[in-house]
């Protein structure tokens, strides 16, 4: 299982501190998903070796409109292992699910965002993972928390109905906001997930990384076709 984090300067903790805490909580890896205008400076291999945890390079694209987002996707796709789009508006949610080059539509229900059957079908067709961000459920209270729970329940229903790929995250910006998988499983049950479904969403980050690393390798030609050394 993997967690996707915002590290310094996009968050309060360094990548190394996030990796250490994640390893202590039993995660196999972390995806560094800083916004493109707040990149982290780190050596993923050094940190991975030090803490015994996979460290995946990534980016969460924050854009004013789909046109700007498209340019950012083109810039980051070859540089980052995981590419997410910061959702939360109808236009950006729609843009993200229409792009096979996008791996994850991040927190689509935030702000004025929503996911309907049209977007769900496009996400499934393009293998764009929709994120279940538990951020607000974990950190809000009262009526605000109830609203976020309702949004996630709605998203769960449509994701199940249309077999949309998805990821799960606490969306932490500090190592203090990281939560162990058992805690995330407990949150998931409040929106109707089974423990296994939450684990599937956590593991999906790692599956995305594995797929994209293969595609970025020198031997990759196309899905199912690899270049081999005749010698």
Provide structural commentary.
- The chain is an alpha/beta fold.
- It is 45% helix and 16% strand.
- It has 9 helices and 9 strands.
- A 7-stranded parallel beta sheet has the order 1-2-3-4-5-6-7. The protein has a two-stranded antiparallel sheet with strand order 8-9.
- The longest helix is centred in the C-terminal third of the chain and has 22 residues, at 195-216.
- The chain is globular, with a radius of gyration of 17 Å.
- The chain starts with a strand and ends in a 5-residue tail after the last strand.
- The model is unreliable at 223-228 (pLDDT under 50).
Terminal residue distance = 38 Å
Give the structural class. Answer: alpha/beta
Overall mean pLDDT: 92
State the major sheet.
Answer: 7 strands, parallel
Pattern of helices and strands: EHEHEHEHEHEHHEHHEE
Which quaternary structure do these chains form? single chain
Features:
7-stranded parallel beta sheet; globular; alpha/beta; 9 helices; two-stranded antiparallel sheet; 45% helix; 231 residues
Summarize this entry quickly.
The protein has 231 residues and is of the alpha/beta class. It has helices at 15-24, 44-51, 66-76, 90-97, 117-126, 135-139, 142-161, 181-190, 195-216; strands at residues 2-5, 29-32, 54-61, 82-86, 104-106, 129-133, 166-169, 220-222, 225-226. 45% of the residues lie in helices and 16% in strands.
Fold blueprint:
Blueprint: E1 2-5, H1 15-24, E2 29-32, H2 44-51, E3 54-61, H3 66-76, E4 82-86, H4 90-97, E5 104-106, H5 117-126, E6 129-133, H6 135-139, H7 142-161, E7 166-169, H8 181-190, H9 195-216, E8 220-222, E9 225-226
